[in-house]
Design brief:
alpha/beta; 7-stranded mixed β-sheet; 4-stranded antiparallel β-sheet; about 40% helix; binds 4'-deoxy-4'-aminopyridoxal-5'-phosphate; binds glutamine
């Protein structure tokens, strides 16, 4: 059916390519108001299909090795899976309380104390969410008025711009620059205006693999305190650090009372499909986020919450071997990419490494990634989609950066490297 004949279709919204638009995700060249998503509100027009959905579908369709979407190709610890099975058999199958089951909230409290020395109250300062994705959306919906500004670092995880837009807020970005993904402190100061509501941080950082250092976090914290900003910090990769250590933003001076910290079991325990996340912070911030969350999912995943509580209680015994193994795989894959002659930005944490394919004579990472499956049966994602997009036709910051997920079995990474040799030749 022609879009114009669809029942109930609004006239195309003017200026749909706007706030936080990730046009590459929305397929540049398409008019998003014309045919692809004729019913989608203007707030969501730029965000039709995520890069992960597109590239994972491409991997399946072409039988390629999927180094695009960040998910492990092996399950997490069997004892956590068994705890979920036992919980299902034990009848833990009805709605959990909106804040999460008490044993998971207590396990999160113990985790915060054990790893960071932070004391939080399980009843008022912890909220279990449907993955960190829901935590991000609920926090932004709860905390932002339309027109509020949200300061965040680019490149940024794709859901940030969409969630900011759904909240009617406006993203203001500070660019992280290779090779060390540092930022200019003046850029950060300038990004904050009288309309800034909150700063949205992600450390360890997707897609760069950067782990923010003490000086950087100190600077961010001072700015939040001086300008009386809230902070939402996405720390889903808190345990996946290979060099240095993860420092929570909430632990910086002045930040405990103004920071909502988000995390998730997906990455820590290699169960990305379970979508059990959490938010921790001062009671008023958690209460506000809970108010939004109760009308998104209300609650979910009771038996999985039971199992994640068991995983968190086991702590380093289950987490440390995963980190050691991921560090080895990072090195295997980064060494291999370097041997192909690519500039490699070896990450300090996360599942991801970035390379600059301009060195291969490829200025456009998006075009490169779309052609890669046909060329050699490997899928990666263009990091360019994690930047605010410039005007039509121009290349974005990070235009030639490609993100590779190394959270795959060593033999899979080796096979991928073998296939990628065609690029060097
Ligand atoms: N934040 C970042 C930085 C991520 O990489 C991801 C992907 N796992 C998420 C949030 C979403 O986490 P979850 O799967 O728990 O919703
Ligand atoms: N966090 C995963 C990544 O960055 C993707 C999750 C998703 O598909 N939304 O690859």
């Amino acid at each position: 059916m022609e879009p114009s004949t669809l029942p109930g279709r609004r006239p195309p919204a003017g200026g749909a390519r706007h706030v936080g638009s990730i046009e590459a995700v929305a397929h540049p060249g398409d008019d998003p108001t014309a045919g692809r998503a004729p019913y989608l509100s203007s707030r969501l027009q730029p965000f039709t299909t995520t890069i992960f959905a597109e590239m994972s579908a491409l991997a399946v369709a072409t039988g390629s090795i999927n180094l695009g979407q960040g998910f492990p190709d092996t399950d997490g610890p069997a004892e956590i899976a068994e705890a979920a099975v036992a919980a299902i058999r034990d009848g833990r199958n009805q709605y959990p309380p909106g804040s999460g089951i008490p044993e998971l909230r207590q396990a999160i409290v113990d985790h915060q104390r054990w790893y960071y020395g932070h004391d939080v109250d399980p009843d008022t300062e912890v909220l279990v969410t449907a993955g960190a994705t829901e935590g991000i959306a609920a926090a932004l919906l709860a905390l932002c008025e339309p027109g509020d500004e949200v300061v965040m670092f680019e490149p940024f995880y794709d859901s940030y711009a969409a969630a900011v837009s759904m909240a009617g807020a406006v993203p203001k970005v500070v660019t992280l620059r290779a090779p060390d993904w540092s930022f200019d402190p003046d850029d950060l100061v300038t990004a904050v205006t009288d309309r800034t509501r909150l700063l949205l941080l992600n450390t360890p950082h997707n897609p760069t693999g950067k782990v923010f250092g003490a000086d950087e976090l100190g600077l961010i914290a001072r700015l939040c305190v001086d300008r009386d900003l809230l902070a939402v910090t996405d720390e889903v990769y808190e345990h996946l650090v290979y060099d240095g250590c993860h420092l929570p933003l909430a632990g910086r001076p002045g930040m405990a009372t103004r920071t909502l910290t988000l995390s998730s079991a997906g990455k820590t325990f290699s169960f990305t499909g379970w979508k059990i996340g959490w938010a921790v912070g001062p009671a008023p911030l958690v209460a506000a986020t809970r108010a939004a969350k109760q009308f998104l999912t209300f609650a979910g995943g009771t038996p999985l919450q039971v199992a994640v509580a068991a995983g968190l209680a086991a702590g380093p015994r289950l987490i440390d071997p995963l980190v050691a193994s991921l560090r080895e795989r990072r090195d295997l894959f980064c060494d291999g990419l370097e041997a192909l002659g690519l500039p490699v930005y070896r990450p300090a944490g996360t599942y991801f490494v970035n390379t600059d394919v301009a060195a291969l004579g490829e200025p456009d990472a998006f075009a490169f990634c779309r052609s890669l499956p046909a060329r050699c049966g490997v899928v990666a994602v263009p990091s360019s989609v994690f930047y605010l997009q410039p005007a039509e036709g121009a290349l974005s910051e990070g235009a030639s950066l490609v993100r590779w997920a190394f959270c795959k079995r060593p033999e899979v990474l080796e096979e991928a490297l073998l296939r990628l040799k065609v690029l060097a030749g």
